[in-house]
Design goal:
Elements lengths: L1 H15 L2 H10 L4 H4 L8 H10 L5 E6 L2 H10 L10 E6 L15 E6 L2 E6 L7 E5 L10 E3 L3 E3 L5 E2 L12 E2 L9 H6 L1 E4 L8 H7 L20 H16 L12 E5 L6 H12 L2 E6 L10 H15 L3 E6 L12 H4 L2 H16 L4 E7 L17 E4 L5 H12 L10 H10 L4 H18 L2 H6 L5 H6 L4 H14 L2
Parallel strand pairs: 1-2, 11-14, 11-15, 12-13, 13-14
Antiparallel strand pairs: 1-3, 2-10, 3-4, 4-7, 5-6, 5-8, 8-9
Length: about 475
């Protein structure tokens, strides 16, 4: 066997030459991975570091870290320091036992190649801790230290400090310009993330690089992101989602192309329109009715016709018109309504024409004042499907709260039932709930003196882990909203 052969050779050389010299020669062959494999689970830190350097191609970054969460946070914080289009990130994770006298690095760092230069960026989560980057034989010099967020061009032969109390004869990380580009070893022994797998911390350069490539659309709001409106959502599924997704089933049925959402402000009418489009994959357009108003004769009606024309051309489509009452008031012959009469007439004509077609183009209108609308416009065949979007009850508020609080740090003393009871008592709407959670988070940051640390640039990864919203933070936030309510 090959292992046996190695053992025999070792015995032979112990008789013919200094065995210590022979062993040192073997250890120095860091590129002989097959030999090292006999004694360890893989290449050592120095070898893995060399593999990472070989993989840098001007569009990738090598992160050396003992805490990947912390290094990712600092990488995003100092995004502007990495002035190349990053498409790949190689992570060399330093594991406990790989350093002498400590379990982790004194500071994480990143290396990237720009043109012919290799740059090192300190990712220390403590701003007062730096990295010594110097020739191993040089005495300590403060000028050789780079602090968190600082970067430096590497030159051949410099060593990167690991924070170990005692150094071996050869430091773990010594930089030498790679002679060749070779990424296979880094892919095998380091963690590789592509641009689609980690957060784009330098969006501008990546966006420019990918301008000709297909970009996946954002998912956007879905029905699952809306709480307290189960009944309204079920009706929209019935009359819009299923007819768009299964048109053959409804081929000979006259669909409700005009839908009126009415109720108090800030209760989710606009979100319903956006979610409806995402649930169906339909083209979404949004207008405020005041946009159609024009002092030029005939321009308002022309804008309305153009909107309907686009809705049909983009079918299946969802067109959302907010504040429809501003252009669709009752035609009662008064001086105030006469200006709007031509627009009401145009809406009536366009809706009648749309209802006669089989085109899956739906017009969703929203209003806080249903009582102001012209009766002919809200009759069957126009905006004939009326859905009330009310202030959420306690159950609905709990749904909304749980949606918005997801992935946010909350202390154990926070009772969702207690908070939503108080919200219901003070007539909170969905927007109020989201605002209360945002304000509570800011209250927590202030209580923990995080703003001061951010201003002084002393905020660390450990501080991030301490942030949690307390019951008192929520109470203060809710009191503020109650005071603002009219």
């Amino acid at each position: 066997m090959r292992v046996g052969a190695v053992g025999i050779n070792c015995g032979y050389y112990s008789k013919s030459r200094n065995i210590k010299q022979y062993r040192n020669n073997l250890i120095n062959k860091t590129d002989t991975v097959s030999f090292r494999g006999l004694f360890s689970s893989g290449p050592d830190l120095s070898t893995r570091f060399a593999y990472g350097l070989e993989a840098l191609d001007g569009q990738s970054v090598l992160v050396v870290t003992s805490n990947e969460e912390s290094s990712n946070m600092m990488l995003e914080l100092y995004a502007d320091k990495i002035d190349i289009p990053v498409m790949k990130k190689y992570t060399l994770l330093v594991k406990p036992g790989e350093l002498k006298n400590r379990d982790d690095l004194s500071a994480n760092f990143a290396i990237f190649k720009k043109d012919k230069d290799y740059n090192i960026l300190s990712l220390a989560d403590n701003p007062i801790i730096g990295i010594q980057v110097a020739n191993p034989k040089d005495e300590f010099n403060e000028k050789n230290r780079i602090f968190s967020g600082e970067k430096k061009v590497l030159i051949d032969g410099v060593a990167i400090d690991t924070g170990e109390l005692f150094y071996s004869e050869k430091p773990k990380f010594v930089f030498n310009t790679p002679k060749n580009y070779y990424a296979d070893s880094a892919k095998r022994y380091l963690t590789l993330n592509t641009v689609n797998e980690f957060k784009d911390f330098n969006k501008r350069t990546i966006s420019a690089l990918n301008s000709s490539k297909k970009v996946e659309p954002k998912t956007g709001f879905r029905f699952s992101d809306i709480g307290g409106l189960d009944s309204v959502i079920e009706t929209l599924k019935k009359y819009v989602v299923r007819p768009i997704n299964y048109p053959q089933v409804f081929e000979n049925i006259r669909l409700n192309k005009g839908i009126l959402l009415w109720g108090p402000p800030r209760c989710g009418k606009t979100l319903l329109g956006k979610a409806l489009a995402n649930e169906t994959g339909a083209k979404y357009s949004e207008y405020n009715a005041n946009e159609f108003k024009s002092s030029t004769l005939g321009s308002s009606e022309a804008s309305i016709r153009e909107m309907f024309k686009k809705a049909v051309a983009n079918a299946p489509s969802i067109t959302f018109i907010d504040e429809i009452d501003s252009i669709a008031k009752k035609r009662d012959g008064s001086s105030n309504s006469r200006f709007d009469d031509p627009m009401v007439n145009q809406l009536l004509g366009c809706m009648s024409d749309l209802e006669k077609t089989k085109t899956p183009a739906f017009i969703i209108a929203a209003t806080n004042r249903k009582d102001l609308l012209d009766p002919a416009l809200v009759a069957s065949g126009r905006f004939g499907l009326h859905l009330e979007v009310p202030i959420p009850d306690e159950k609905g508020l709990k749904q909304i709260f749980n949606i918005h609080i997801k992935d946010k740090p909350v202390m154990q003393n926070v009772s969702v039932d207690e908070l939503t009871r108080m919200m219901s008592l003070h007539k909170f709407n969905g927007s109020d709930v989201a605002e209360a959670i945002t304000n509570a988070y800011f209250n927590a940051l202030e209580r923990l003196s995080m703003f001061e640390k951010m201003d002084n640039r002393t905020f660390t990864y450990a501080d991030l882990q301490k942030i949690a919203i307390s019951k008192e933070d929520f109470h203060l936030a809710m009191q503020k909203i109650v005071r603002q309510k009219i």
